[in-house]
Design brief:
Length: 230
């Protein structure tokens, strides 16, 4: 009740104050924040917060951190060029890569979302429960409700973390690939996501790393995963 009263009597933020507040909140959060949540806190509209975030992002061009703007959220992260120094300073080991099977499932979801696990299985021709679970654990995909069909299966979509890991601003930036939207079609994985010569059991290229957990204080621009020390 007290916080509500404070918010009602708070003076409107100027543009300069709003940008500073936005920067402070994102720094403290350490993970992506939805524009609507930021807007509610600062007494602004999501559209204005999004505009301020994009304007603020341009001020980080010559700094060691970046402000990444997504369709529905934004996030502060460290620039990849300093990842090695940050890891050494904080004693962080480099994370492992995504397997080719996980990459395959991730591509199917990215190009067809929202999508059920049974549909993924049908397209791939194999059980995908382990890969789906692994991607959920890594925060690259998330559940987004249930399909209105018998059994009400869970629907899966990619997350903002997926966009950050693959250097995308939105799903519209996904590279073109063969259609994956019907079970009758053979799966086609884009060269940018999975090299054709790699087998189903091979490791994905080193560029594709496990995602950073929201609780981790260090967030790299390309999504490198600081693992827990042994």
């Amino acid at each position: 009740m007290e916080d509500s009263t404070i918010q009602e009597t708070r003076e409107p933020l100027s543009e300069e104050q709003a940008k500073k507040a936005l920067e402070a909140i994102l720094f403290a959060a350490g993970h992506s924040m939805p524009y609507d949540k930021l807007a509610a806190v600062m007494g602004l509209t999501p559209a204005i917060v999004k505009r301020y975030a994009k304007e603020l992002a341009t001020t980080y061009d010559d700094k060691g951190i970046s402000l990444l703007c997504y369709p529905d959220s934004c996030q502060l992260c460290t620039k990849e060029e300093f990842a090695t120094l940050v890891r050494e300073a904080l004693g962080i080991r480099r994370g492992g890569n995504l397997s080719a099977s996980s990459m395959e499932v991730l591509a199917v979801i990215a190009y067809n979302q929202p999508i059920t696990r049974s549909f993924i299985d049908t397209i791939r021709g194999v059980d995908s429960s382990y890969a789906v679970g692994s991607l959920l654990d890594k925060g690259l995909i998330e559940a987004s409700g249930r399909l209105d069909a018998p059994g009400r299966p869970m629907l899966y979509v990619t997350t903002d973390k997926f966009l950050r890991v693959f250097g995308l601003s939105s799903l519209e930036d996904l590279p073109e690939t063969e259609a994956l939207s019907t079970a009758a079609q053979q799966i086609g994985i884009s060269n940018e996501l999975l090299k054709p010569e790699e087998s189903a059991e091979a490791e994905a290229p080193k560029d594709y790393e496990a995602a950073v957990d929201p609780e981790d204080a260090v967030i790299f621009e390309s999504g490198a995963d600081p693992e827990e020390p042994k």
